[in-house]
Structure formats: structure tokens, C-alpha cells
UniProtKB/TrEMBL annotation:
Keywords: Membrane, Transmembrane, Transmembrane helix. It comes from Ruegeria halocynthiae. InterPro entries: K_chnl_dom. This is Ion channel. The chain crosses the membrane at residues 12-32, 44-73, 85-104, 111-134. Residues 64-135 form the Potassium channel domain.
Amino acid sequence: MTLSQQIIWGSFYLGICFLIEIMLLTWCVLVIRKLVEKWEVRSTILATAGPISVALLFIVLTHTVQVWIWAIVWVMGDVLPDWNSALYFSLVTFTTLGYGDIVLGEGLRIFGAFASVTGLLAFGLSTAFLVALMTRVFEERFLN
């Protein structure tokens, strides 16, 4: 893959992952809004811990979907030989851990770096989302 192809395709898959994250986090907000109405009448603990728990489940789901997208790219592109290697490489790259036991050839290094940029941005967005949610939950529960 040429450098420009790596940048174009890397940006494309990063964009898909980012759209998925935005859609799932938006869906998370809608789910939490519906559930909070039910939880508020039951207990303060449930009304506080419930939204945070739901958000964490959505965040884990969101990141899992993104890791799978990159694994599909590696397998379908005949970059890695099997699903086990592809999922492992995707997860290690997405988390920016990068053990180095599986490496891409020169023609895919920039493209592969987009998988780690995807993870870096996803973790940043998820962290910001969780902090904003927790701030709002704690303000509504304990400061009013």
C-alpha cells in the first residue's frame, strides 16, 4: 500500500470507528435518560450507580466493536493469518500497548498506526464522556 493509500484508508477506518463511538455514546445517553426516571423512585444508590454502570457497559461495547472492525480489516486484507492473531494485534494496538511480537510490514506501518490513533481518540472521548456523566450525576444527587 502506498503512503497516500495508507493515510486515506487509515483515516476512513478511523472515521468509521469514531462515528460508531459517537452513535453508541449518544444511544447510551438516551438509554440512561429512560432508566433514570425509573431508578430515581427506587433509591439514591441505584440512581447514582446505575447511569455510571450503563455508561461503562456502553463504553466497553463501543471499544470492543472498534477492535473487531480493525481485526476484520487485518483478516480480510490478508494481513494477519487468523482471527486470534488479528484480534490480539487489534487489541494490543488499539490500547497503544504494542508488545511488538506481531508487526506489520513496511507497506502497512502507517495504516497500522491509525489503529492506535483510533484507540487513543476512543479512550479520550470515552473518558471525557464518563467524567461529564459522573459530574452531572453527582451534581444532581448530592449538590442539589
